[in-house]
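Design job #97: recover the sequence.
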């Protein structure tokens, strides 16, 4: 058990098995020392934890919780990509957070904090801090409020 696994346990987080792709894509791909994850949605125990648009059906806090769950699922994909050793992650290079938003909602960056803060907490500041884009969109697959993709550098 490595340091990242210890921090996950201390936070009470058990990573799910990396879910298989839902369509014609792979859940992650590696080139050189970089791993690119496919977008991860806020699924827990096989079902989305929330649905709808942030700023309408989903509160800011619920959106942040959804982004946090997306980041947990990103870590599950990275665990698969590292053969189970999350300590092989040298750095999260960048994440992109897509937020299904009500037309007048303009706090996508605050929703994205749910994912960014989880990655910092679990991976530590040096490894978990990253560049980020937070993008508002009209709709996401399965009507989920948030989707997160990541680029990670491996040791």
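Job complete. Output follows.
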């Amino acid at each position: 058990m490595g340091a990242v696994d210890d921090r996950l346990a201390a936070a009470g987080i058990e990573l799910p098995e990396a879910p298989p792709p839902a369509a014609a894509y792979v859940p992650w791909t590696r080139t050189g020392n970089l791993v690119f994850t496919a977008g991860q949605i806020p699924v827990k125990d096989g079902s989305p934890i929330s649905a709808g648009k942030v700023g309408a059906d989903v509160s800011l806090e619920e959106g942040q919780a959804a982004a946090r769950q997306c980041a947990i699922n990103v870590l599950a994909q990275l665990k698969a990509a590292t053969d189970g050793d999350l300590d092989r992650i040298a750095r999260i290079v960048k994440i992109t957070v897509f937020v299904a938003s009500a037309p007048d909602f303009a706090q996508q960056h605050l929703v994205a904090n749910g994912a960014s803060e989880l990655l910092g907490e679990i991976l530590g500041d040096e490894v978990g801090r990253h560049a980020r884009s937070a993008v508002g969109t009209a709709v996401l697959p399965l009507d989920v409020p948030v989707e997160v993709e990541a680029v990670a550098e491996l040791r």
